Amino acid sequence: MNIIKQLRQQSNLTQQELGEKLNIQKSAISKYETGRTRPSLETLQKLSSIFKVSVETLLNGLGIKIEEFNQEAKQPKDLTKFLNQTEIMFDGETYKLNPESRQKLRNALEFAFYEAKKMNKRKKD
Fold it and tell me: Do residues 45 and 55 lie in contact, with contact meaning Cβ atoms separated by under 8 Å?
């Protein structure tokens, strides 16, 4: 059994209640428990605090080596690959993106990166 589910049940919490404590949707809890997605470091830290276990214990219970988790966190994310996904999770909720929505997201991010680039140039001057 998944450690998150096991700890949640031992604490007599529903997925809804745990989601409320973590400020995320019940569906995110379900995905963690079924192994469809991995919790972020921030979520693992919150779970650690709620269940009074170490983050390492949670990672071990999820079958994730701490070195592997740290390596994944350090690697840059491929934005193009992300933008080509038809389904994304944001703030604990899952959204389906059609081609028009993906293009709008791409445009917004291009603008944000352009602004960041301008700011970085100003700092160097």
Answer: yes
